[in-house]
Amino acid sequence: MTQAVVLAQDLTAAGFVALGAAIAYHWYRDRGRAQAKLALALISLALVAALGRLPSSPLLSVVVIVAFMLSGYFVLMFRNEFIPLRRTLYRAANVLLGVSILAGILDVTLLQRANPILVTLLGLVLITAWAIFTGEPIVRFWLASNGVPAVQRARMRFLSLGFAVLIAILFVDVLGGSRLQSPTAIIVTQVLALAVVPIIYVSLAPPSLLRRIWRMSEENALRDAMQDLLIHSPSREALADRAAFWAVRLFGATAGFVVDPDGKVIAASGIGRDQATRLAANPGQSGAIVRAPLHLTEGQGWLCVIAGDFTPVFGTEEVSQLRAYANSVSAGLQRVGVTERVAGIEKNKTQFLNLASHELRGPVTVMRGYVSMLQGGLLGQLNERGRQAAGVMAAKVSEMNELIEEMIEAARLEEGALTLRTADADLRQIASSAADAVTPLLDSRHRLVLDLPDRRVRVKVDADRTKTIIANLLSNAIKYSPEGGVITCQVRSRAGVARVAVTDEGLGIPRDGLPTLFTRFGRVITPETQHLQGTGLGLFLGRQLARMHGGDITVATIEGKGSTFTLQLPAGPPPNGASDGAAQAPKNRIGPDAVKR
Ligand code: ADP
Fold it and tell me: Are 546 and 553 in contact (CB under 8 A)?
């Protein structure tokens, strides 16, 4: 049994010596002031453990007592590095150190441990002083750990826990006296003391696996934050604000701010902008500022955090991660910058569209008036060539007019000023009048077939705009079938959806052109279509209007063979409670009355 006791005591001593050596090595690498204090505390503790294994002598006992008291004192000094002690407390701590060392020396030299009660009392004085030195900081670390990121929190708590166990062991040991001198009791206390070694070690240099485990709880929040930061931030300012906020959270800092390349603070969290601006201008003022560069097209900006009291020791890895984080923030800022610029250009386009279309409207109306007066003979009789010219002018003016109407409609849509005037209507009638409207565009090579069901197709729509959508699909079908062919306009209603499908046998659309079809000004230019005129507004407007009605426009096309554009709209209930028109209508009836040439 005694062998086991000796082994336990040797192991514990070796554990503390190893801990002292490890922290000394870490301090040698980092050379931080605060780390130095903690290193001294743990090296002193290692000394106590090591010397305690040597044969006892009064001199050795004095050294052990001094080392022991210093180990506690340096824990307090370690805390003093973060949050300075008040002067009086600092002095009191020094006095307490002196008194307790003196009492210990008295005990082992003059009194030579004469009276067991006195020995216990002096022992209590020493341990109480040590407990005060270490107890105050560990309570403070524990309390402060609540507001910091998970890894820092765990590290601070482990340090507190390690010292708390040591305090408990020391008190039990001294108060228990001879009752705790049994081999089992000694082994238990030694094992407990040994357990403190890894606890304190991981608080100082946690292995990456542990960091990962500690961080797990925060990982989802972090991922969401990154996504929020990089994808959803609507503007540069908003992104910078979020970046500063998350930098503070991620690093357990007290404040953070973002500085753009010309030195302007564009976001601040936990600090006023004025103060941030002063610090940005002179970062050397506060040693606690950690800066990471932001690489932006306009130059180099900075993401700065003002380290929290405990960040330099417990957030070392996080501080080095600030750079990686800053790179993501740079990418986000670049993206938002580009998006903002594009939005600006789009806005200009809309404004131009609006202005140009309204300015053109007046002159075109006047021209229309004169052309129709010319055609009607109100300005004198025209000869044959004059009549032909007036006809061409009328067609071109009406083309121009349509174009202007499209531009005005697109501008309205962009500004959110477009409202629908919906009413019950029969989609067959709307499709028919759209077909009538495009009849002048047909030439002898085209045949337009209207395929309508017998029953009414009830829809609640803005009839004028629905007619415009269908007319545009039909005129496209004609325009993009330069070789002619059959163009079918089929109206159907099924399962609550009314459809108008416009099919042509024309050029079709190449696959890579499909994504641009429905975009504003989106045209698919191929050698076959490049000479055809258009604005690229028709399908854009058509789809937007269809969607405003709760419907859509879809396309099926084969390059070189033709296309089918389908307008879908929510269908109203079928008349007289009958089932949908399409279910009863004679299928694909293409009556001679519905054929247009
Ligand atoms: P545009 O004024 O150019 O006709 P649209 O928005 O109506 O504008 O159409 C966008 C583009 O879609 C057209 O430029 C054309 O390339 C293609 N497109 C539209 N309808 C057809 C069709 N029926 N067949 C082939 N291509 C079409």
Answer: yes
224 and 79 together in one domain: no
Residues within a 6 A CB radius of ligand 1: 472, 476-477, 480, 504, 506-507, 509, 517, 522-524, 529, 534-540, 563
Identify the band that residue 56 occupies on the pLDDT scale cut at 50, 70 and 90.
confident
Is 343 inside any structural domain? no
Q: Do 329 and 430 have their domain in common?
A: no
Mean pLDDT confidence for 203-222: 81
Domain-embedded: residue 339 = no
CA–centroid distance, 523 to ligand 1, in Å, is 6
CA 41 – CA 141 distance, rounded (Å): 16
Residues 173 and 317 in one domain: no
The secondary structure of the chain in percent helix, strand, coil, rounded to multiples of 5, reads 65, 15, 20
Among residues 358, 386, 412, the one where a domain terminates is: 412
Closest atom of ligand 1 to 525 CA is 16
Q: Are residues 103 and 241 in the same domain?
A: no
94-143: per-residue pLDDT in tens? 999 999 898 888 877 766 656 777 777 888 888 899 999 999 999 998 99
Residue 313 and residue 254 in one domain: yes
Q: Which of 111, 94, 108 is nearest to 65 (CA)?
A: 108
Q: Does residue 59 sit within a domain?
A: yes
pLDDT at 167 over 60: yes
pLDDT at 465: 95
Tokens representing 367?
């021209």
